[in-house]
């Protein structure tokens, strides 16, 4: 029996006293148990963005190549030749801590549906992962489950996982971040949207049956964790990648007809959010009959069916005369197909079950008129400038330690569990370039894809960190030769009710916006994940950036592997900035100072120059300089090509450890056959450039004469994760 609806129950459902009072005012009566559940999920932070919408509006979202920006299931950009790329990133943070395998797996499944819902065939998955202290057994359990979940779902559904990033920090001990990104390709004149239309048209449920898994998952994702968080496993969804594969094929087959008017996947808040969003966007009403919903469990209530987050389900509005065509397709693929309602002209959602009206709610307050908060903000204090920090170990020892540390060690243990080549179109696999490169089938062109964020920068200075995340994504795409087109973001922050957290969020948005404008890199989709705290301790903020770029010819893409006989040239200015660097943390034992400043004019100028040189065929390998600084970048290129390097002395006036390990931005290392020609071109363009050394023998030789064998570097680089995970 449903419990009595009152303010106490509303609080359990995540509604504040003011919000519950607003529900009473809207309804003019006490809501039913099901109605309260519907309000609670639609007004949750996860679904309504009630704390973040006011800030997200500051992001640039338009460009001539943007077809659809934020507001649809995913962003859509024109990539030429009549094609569109459809892509988005989304979080599954809370579920992945409670049940790591299923939390991560269903995160992949959900983002796949966001993309193929719009008519695209998915061609690539990426992920951005943040884990806690790796020495903790709980962290190791989360790493194992998350990586297996991503691989298990993506591999089985037949979409390659081609890239991503991983960070470790104790702030993620009780709240790991699992951000999943999917990219798909569609004809730009065959994009499917979610706005319902046509009074009387049938509303059709397709896919898997509905169960009790995932109920109130959206509200769980809108609250802090406490000590009992691991007891919330019933709110974690359970995925089936084989059914997802059938659903992809059935939907794409139906999309080749003219049957679909609107389509929406059932993600967070399940049948509630999909029906409310479709009807709300279309300005129509909706009458649902839950007796028609396919169910895999007996005795399910209206509340359970409306809030279930069972996976692999979609909702469609079909043309009445094409209903039989659609049914035949889904039955062929052995998927459920059921007419569960009709569009009305009432502007209300009416839910019927077993002869009773369980919910009757005006749609506007659930969708466009959900609460919107202008929460107070407190700016993050600017870090104190970093004074002189002596070098305690020397460059050779520091490099060996850095390249094996958790944030810089080889990710092969992770990506070897992912199928990165299924489909046969992957041009640059994980670790082979600064961004993944995936060719478009039956076309010469390719997409470059990356995810980027440096949380320690964002903690120290959220505005600079937000700008740097965008700039690094832009650099990583550029380093392959691609033209960056657009961004999807995943804003991972703590409790928005704390002014200092909202201050971080607002500042990060300012930095991101400035960078996106300066780099012509608009935001076309994204996700906000707040309340990433455990027992009051927030995570390092992580505004993760998923970047997409295009190459007109996949053969033009360059990687980072060196070859013997090439000259190394540094593009960009080096000042030796050690604040918030990995060298400072791992070698000097400090987390201090401001992050490196981001000069957006220099980013644009240097990147455009590098890209032009790559596309002109004058660059054999390219790597941007980021975490770990210049010497780490060179070492990574040497390891990728199994080729040694003899380095030239550091610039005068900069301490050697600051030269080699400072994390100044807007820099690239290029490997070329004619350094003199490149330096002349850079000088003519007003670009700072300097010879670094030459690739050749089997060692990395420092200007001091100290040598580090590639075998030693490789052993250090590859040791950490297999040792940590016991395999």
Helix content estimate: 25-40%
Shape: globular
| CATH fold type of the domain at 558-725 | Phosphoribosyl-aminoimidazole Synthetase, Chain A, domain 2
Query: What structural class should be given to the helix and strand makeup?
Result: alpha+beta
- Strand order in the sheet with the most strands: 8-10-7-11-9-12-13
CATH class of the domain at 558-725: Alpha Beta
Give the low-confidence spans. 229-233
Percent of residues in beta strands? 15-25%
CATH architecture of the domain at 558-725: Alpha-Beta Complex
What name goes with the CATH superfamily of the domain at 558-725?
PurM-like C-terminal domain
Number of strands: 28
Oligomer: single chain
Radius of gyration: 26 Å
Count helical runs.
24
Largest sheet: 7 strands, mixed
Q: What's the overall average pLDDT, rounded?
A: 95
Distance, first to last CA: 50 Å
């Amino acid at each position: 029996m449903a419990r009595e609806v009152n303010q106490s129950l509303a609080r359990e459902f995540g509604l504040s006293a003011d919000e519950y009072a607003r529900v009473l005012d809207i309804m003019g009566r006490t809501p039913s148990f099901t109605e309260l559940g519907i309000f609670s999920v639609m007004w949750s932070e996860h679904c309504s963005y009630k704390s973040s919408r006011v800030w997200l509006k500051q992001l640039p979202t338009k460009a001539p190549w943007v077809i659809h920006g934020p507001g649809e299931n995913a962003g859509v950009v024109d990539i030429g030749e009549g094609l569109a790329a459809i892509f988005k990133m989304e979080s599954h943070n809370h579920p992945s801590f409670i049940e790591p395998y299923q939390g991560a797996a269903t995160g992949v499944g959900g983002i796949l549906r966001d993309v193929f819902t719009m008519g695209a065939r998915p061609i690539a998955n990426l992920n951005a992962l943040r884990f806690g202290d790796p020495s903790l057994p709980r962290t190791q359990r989360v790493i194992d489950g998350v990586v297996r979940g991503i691989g298990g779902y993506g591999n089985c559904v037949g979409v390659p996982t081609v890239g991503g990033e991983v960070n470790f920090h104790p702030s993620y001990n009780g709240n790991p971040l699992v951000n999943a990104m999917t990219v798909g390709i569609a004809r730009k004149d065959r994009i499917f949207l979610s706005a319902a239309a046509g009074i009387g048209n049938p509303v059709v449920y397709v896919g898997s049956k509905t169960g009790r898994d995932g109920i109130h998952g959206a509200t769980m994702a809108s609250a802090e964790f406490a000590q009992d968080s691991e007891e919330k496993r019933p709110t974690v969804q359970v995925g089936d990648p084989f059914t997802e594969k059938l659903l992809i094929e059935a939907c794409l087959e139906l999309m080749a007809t003219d049957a679909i008017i609107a389509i929406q996947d059932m993600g967070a808040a399940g049948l509630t959010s999909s029906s409310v969003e479709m009807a709300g966007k279309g300005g129509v009403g909706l009458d649902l009959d839950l007796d028609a919903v396919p169910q895999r469990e007996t005795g399910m209530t209206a509340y359970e069916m409306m809030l279930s987050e069972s996976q692999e389900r979609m909702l469609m509005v079909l043309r009445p005369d094409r209903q039989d065509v659609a049914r035949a397709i889904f039955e062929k693929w052995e998927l459920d197909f059921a007419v569960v309602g009709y569009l009305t002209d009432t502007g209300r959602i009416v839910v019927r079950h077993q002869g009773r009206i369980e919910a009757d709610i005006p749609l506007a307050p659930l969708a466009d008129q959900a609460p919107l908060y202008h929460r107070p903000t407190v700016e993050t204090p600017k870090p104190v400038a970093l004074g002189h920090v002596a070098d305690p170990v020397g460059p050779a020892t520091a490099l060996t330690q850095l390249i094996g540390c958790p944030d810089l060690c080889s990710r092969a243990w992770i990506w070897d569990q992912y199928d990165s080549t299924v489909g046969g179109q992957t041009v640059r696999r994980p670790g082979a370039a600064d961004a993944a490169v995936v060719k478009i089938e039956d076309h010469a062109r390719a997409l470059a894809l990356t995810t980027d964020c440096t949380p320690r920068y964002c903690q120290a200075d959220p505005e600079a960190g937000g700008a740097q995340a965008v700039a690094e994504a832009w650099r990583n795409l550029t380093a392959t030769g691609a033209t960056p087109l657009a961004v999807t973001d995943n804003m991972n922050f703590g409790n928005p009710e704390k002014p200092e957290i909202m201050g971080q969020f607002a500042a990060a948005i300012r930095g991101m916006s400035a960078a996106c404008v300066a780099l012509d890199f608009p935001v076309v989709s994204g996700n906000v994940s707040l309340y990433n705290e455990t027992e009051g301790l927030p995570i390092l903020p992580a505004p993760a950036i998923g970047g997409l770029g295009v190459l007109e010819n996949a053969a033009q893409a360059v990687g980072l592997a060196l070859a013997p006989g090439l000259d190394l040239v540094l593009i960009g200015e080096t000042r030796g900035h050690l604040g918030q660097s990995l060298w400072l943390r791992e070698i000097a034992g400090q987390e201090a100072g401001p992050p490196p400043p981001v000069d957006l004019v220099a980013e644009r100028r240097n990147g455009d120059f590098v890209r032009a040189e790559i596309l002109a065929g004058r660059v054999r390998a390219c790597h941007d300089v980021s975490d770990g600084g210049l010497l780490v970048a060179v070492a990574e290129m040497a390891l990728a090509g199994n080729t040694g390097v003899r380095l030239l002395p550091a610039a005068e006036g900069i301490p050697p450890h600051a030269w080699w390990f400072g994390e100044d931005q807007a820099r690239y290392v290029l490997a070329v056959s004619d350094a003199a020609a490149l330096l002349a071109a850079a000088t003519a363009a007003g670009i700072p450039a300097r010879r670094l050394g030459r690739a050749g023998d089997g060692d990395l030789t420092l200007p001091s004469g100290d040598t580090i064998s590639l075998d030693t570097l490789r052993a250090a680089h590859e040791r950490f994760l297999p040792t940590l995970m016991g395999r």
